[in-house]
Design a protein that fits this description.
The protein is an all-alpha fold and 270 residues long. Helix content is 78%, strand content 0%. The chain has 13 helices and no strands. Helix 2 packs across helix 3 and helix 7 crosses helix 8.
Length: 270
């Protein structure tokens, strides 16, 4: 019976949807059976938010709004990088422990294993983001846009997270060990700070501002910020929300289009 669940029908390989659902369930059960992973992911993200909220809150002033209203969209959008390190580490652990080798021996689509990893970790990201947003409201964050715009902003963050999961999955496949994967994951952190997430890019040196204004995280942060700030967004960002949302979606699709095939190719090569 257990074999049927993985293999699908006796006469052929399991379909992509069924095999993906099965491996996703296994990945989620790993979190359920090790609740420390969920607790750490949730608490870590919220703890970092509180540090930024109270450490920078009195030092950085944004015209026309409180710093917490400026910070929250940037923090939750770049929080996908904090969560992604766990994905890279888990992918590397699956390789080290032989789980991936066992899946390679089964007649299932190779991409289903990686899609399952991305889906499971995106679900955990969504939970952590929702919890952090609740903490943000508790410490003074105000949603200036509509409730629908707030939900759209949350959906964008989850979509960004799914895209970056593929980057971290690729890192885990190339790393060779969990320790190396964790170290490789730290490489992307400078992108979070050289963006509009925590301070306006106008405050940066001109040579750095050029990069900060046009890198993907800035467009993603400003898209979330434009949806949550409501009437304040146009004055702060200089463009309507559609400008940033459209560009952030282009970047999201581009990241998936590059990272997904690389990850699948690396997985197939072993």
């Amino acid at each position: 019976m257990a074999t049927d669940v993985v293999y699908g029908t006796a006469g052929g390989g399991a379909g992509l949807a069924r095999s993906t659902a099965t491996v996703t369930r296994r990945a989620l059960l790993r979190y359920v059976r090790t609740p420390q992973l969920i607790v750490l992911a949730t608490v870590q993200m919220s703890l970092f938010f509180l540090i930024y909220r109270y450490m920078f809150g009195g030092a950085i002033h944004i015209a026309g709004m409180s710093y917490v209203d400026y910070l929250v969209p940037g923090f939750v959008a770049t929080g996908v990088l904090f969560m992604g390190i766990g994905t890279a580490t888990a992918m590397a652990e699956d390789l080290e422990q032989g789980f991936v080798d066992r899946l390679r021996s089964l007649p299932i689509p190779r991409s289903s294993v990686l899609i399952a990893r991305a889906a499971a970790d995106t679900a955990i990201l969504a939970w952590s983001t929702a919890f952090t947003a609740a903490v943000a409201f508790a410490v003074g964050f105000t949603l200036h846009g509509s409730a629908l715009e707030g939900l759209a902003a949350f959906g964008l963050v989850v979509l960004f997270g799914f895209a970056f999961e593929w980057v971290f999955i690729t890192m885990g496949l190339f790393a060779g060990s969990a320790q190396a994967a964790q170290g490789m994951g730290m490489i992307v952190f400078p992108f979070a700070f050289v963006s509009s997430a925590y301070v306006p890019v106008s405050s940066m040196p001109s040579w750095l501002r050029v990069f900060a204004e046009h890198q993907p995280l800035t467009y993603m942060v400003d898209a979330v910020r434009a949806l949550t700030l409501g009437p304040h967004a146009q004055a702060l960002l200089g463009h309507p929300s559609s400008y940033f949302v459209s560009r952030s979606l282009v970047w999201t699709l581009a990241i998936i289009a590059v990272a997904l095939p690389v990850a699948v190719a690396k997985y197939r090569r072993g």
